[in-house]
Structure formats: structure tokens, C-alpha cells
Specification:
The chain is α+β, with helices and mostly antiparallel strands. The protein contains 6 helices and 10 strands. It has 2 domains: about 170 residues, Jelly Rolls (Sandwich), CATH 2.60.120; about 120 residues, no CATH class. Helix 4 runs parallel beside helix 6 and helix 5 runs antiparallel to helix 6.
Length: about 325
């Protein structure tokens, strides 16, 4: 590999490095974090759910109920043409699947519960949620996977997993916001009074990166002599690379200072954690001898978007992804 072939090191270190570089890096297995959608659209329209936006966030405590925080799917007319509960489509999951990755599996977590009589002559049983996936903006759908029977309190149901492709063929582009869709359709017997409460949906993608490289923020902090090929300077300000850092009061720090940021409880502290990995990611992406999974433009765009969101979950999700990429290669001891 070429990741450090031309870095300037003492002779003994160079010899040790060369012996390491003769061994190809193993394929790197990774995954996105569980991501919730930001958008939704009506699927079938005969009897669409109420308040579908409530399923964007998993905000009902497991083991409890809170109807006001759920999308409501229902049937209305037993024996008639309207006796169905229609689907809802969720998208904009912002799944950070790197270009060129081999997709290994897809996990969907559906949260919700059911209402309606559970005993007596009008008891209803067998209520479930069915999930379908699309990687082409809904032009085609996978076969569905079903939750187990819903209970009367909120619970999470995991469908698929790290090696389950849902009988689909996937590439990294399948999971872009433009392409990826999750459709939820309730299932069960058709009787008036059936109510399905959808608390939230989340998606995680498992993938393998082969032959990609990345060096940690600690490496770049301790090896400023290796920055010149990247075109970036240790004294360069954060704002000159990540414009949104200025709005959080961090734009005046240098790239080198950012590599020494710590964490803490505030939004700014979480942004610092992201920027530690962001600076390392830019240096990795910009160095001609490192085969990084993202381009500089992709790193900058994703980091600016996360900072602009001022959402801790979004910021930490990207921080985790970049941290994984920045540790694809073993650090070299100084």
C-alpha cells in the first residue's frame, strides 16, 4: 500500500513501516448508525394514516403508550371497500454509506403498539406491521418482513440484520436520500376498531470497505510534517475549511488546535468532537497516498450540514462514522 510510502521518517521507522505496508489491509466491516427519517409521503391512499409525521422520531418510552406521539393506522368499514389500513412511506434517512462499499445487510427497527379490544366477543388479535424497502425511489420494492404480533404497549421490533439483504440488490447509491425508501403497511384481520400505533422507524446499513485507508486524528496531530501533500496547513483556521464552525464560535481555532478538542455536555462540545474527526478526515481525503472512502468535498459538505443542523444526534452520528473511517489503517508510532 502507499499510504505512507513517502512520509519522512527516521530510517528504522521507515523499515518497520515498509514491512507493515507489504501486508494488505483486511476488508473493513462497518455500519451506519440507526437513522430516523426526516420526510414521509402517503403510500396507498384509500385510508391513509393520521399524523404520519409522528413516526419520524422514536419518542414513546418502551413499555408505555402515548397516542399523541404516534402515527395512527386504522380500518373503518368492516366488509366494505374501505376496510383497509393504508401505507406510509418514509425517506431522507441520511444513511452515510461510503461510495464503493459492499452492502452486507439492512436492519430496520419498527417501534409501536396496538389498541382495540383484546378480550371478549370483539377481541382483535394478530395485528402486525409489514416493512418493505426500495433503493430506486419506490419504483420497485423488496418482499416484506413482518414484526411479531404487536402488544398494547410500545415496543421495538427488529427486522433484517447484518447479513440480510431483503432479497434485494444494493449499492451504496441505493441508500442516498434520493433513492432509499421504507414503506410501512399494517397487517392483521380486517375489523372495525383495529388501531396500529407507529411510534418510529429506524434503519441501519451494514457494509464492507475493501482496501480503503484512513489515519487517526492522533496521527495527524503528532505528524504535522506529513501535512504538506494535503494542501492544508496546521495554522489554517477551521472556518476556512468548515464554514459552519464559525456559527458555533469555533471558526477561529486552527486545524491543529481542533485535533486536540475535548468533549462535554453542550452542543458546542459535541461539535468539537465532530471537528476532531472532520479535520483528520479532510487530511486523509486530501493526501494523494491515502485511499480514503470520501472525497474532501464530501467530508466538508457532510460536516457543514451536520453543524448547521445544531442537532446533537446528527452531529454525533457523523462523528462516529468519520471516526471509523479514520481508523481504517493502523496508526504509525512516531
Amino acid at each position: 500500500m502507499k499510504r505512507q510510502a513517502e512520509f519522512r521518517k527516521p530510517l528504522m521507522t521507515v523499515i518497520l513501516m515498509l514491512s507493515t505496508m507489504l501486508i494488505a489491509l483486511p476488508a473493513h466491516a462497518g455500519s451506519t448508525t440507526l437513522q430516523s427519517p426526516a420526510s414521509y409521503a402517503t403510500g396507498t391512499t384509500l385510508n391513509p394514516p393520521s399524523d404520519p409525521e409522528q413516526a419520524i422520531a422514536n419518542d414513546v418510552t418502551t413499555g408505555t403508550t402515548n397516542d399523541a406521539l404516534c402515527a395512527l393506522f386504522r380500518t373503518t368499514n368492516p366488509g366494505g371497500g374501505d376496510d383497509v389500513a393504508d401505507s406510509e412511506i418514509y425517506y431522507d434517512f441520511s444513511l452515510a454509506v461510503p461510495a464503493g462499499a459492499t452492502i452486507d445487510g439492512i436492519e430496520v427497527v419498527v417501534s409501536g403498539y396496538r389498541t382495540g379490544p383484546t378480550s371478549g366477543p370483539h377481541a382483535i388479535s394478530g395485528l402486525i406491521f409489514n416493512a418493505y424497502l426500495s433503493g430506486d425511489a419506490g419504483s420497485s420494492w423488496t418482499t416484506f418482513k413482518s414484526t411479531s404480533e404487536l402488544t398494547t404497549t410500545d415496543a421495538e421490533y427488529t427486522l433484517g440484520g447484518s447479513t440480510d439483504l431483503w432479497n434485494g440488490i444494493w449499492t451504496s447509491s441505493s441508500f442516498s436520500n434520493a433513492n432509499f425508501r421504507l414503506q410501512i403497511i399494517p397487517g392483521g384481520p380486517l375489523n372495525t376498531g383495529e388501531h396500529w400505533k407507529l411510534d418510529g422507524v429506524q434503519v441501519r446499513v451494514y457494509y464492507t470497505l475493501a482496501d480503503f485507508e484512513g489515519l487517526s486524528h492522533g496521527y495527524w496531530k503528532n505528524h504535522t510534517e506529513d501535512w504538506p501533500p494535503t494542501g492544508y496547513s496546521p495554522s489554517q483556521t477551521l472556518a476556512s475549511v468548515f464554514s459552519e464552525s464559525a456559527d458555533l464560535g469555533l471558526g477561529g481555532y486552527t486545524l491543529l488546535q481542533a485535533l486536540d478538542f475535548g468533549g462535554g455536555p453542550t452542543l458546542t462540545d459535541k461539535a468539537q468532537l465532530l471537528l476532531v474527526q472532520a479535520v483528520a478526515a479532510v487530511l486523509n481525503a486530501a493526501h494523494p497516498d491515502i485511499n480514503y472512502p470520501l472525497t474532501v468535498a464530501q467530508v466538508v459538505a457532510q460536516v457543514n450540514a451536520a453543524l448547521a443542523s445544531e442537532d446533537v444526534t446528527t452531529i454525533l452520528a457523523l462523528q462516529g462514522v468519520l471516526d471509523g473511517y479514520n481508523n481504517l489503517s493502523d496508526d504509525v508510532e512516531p
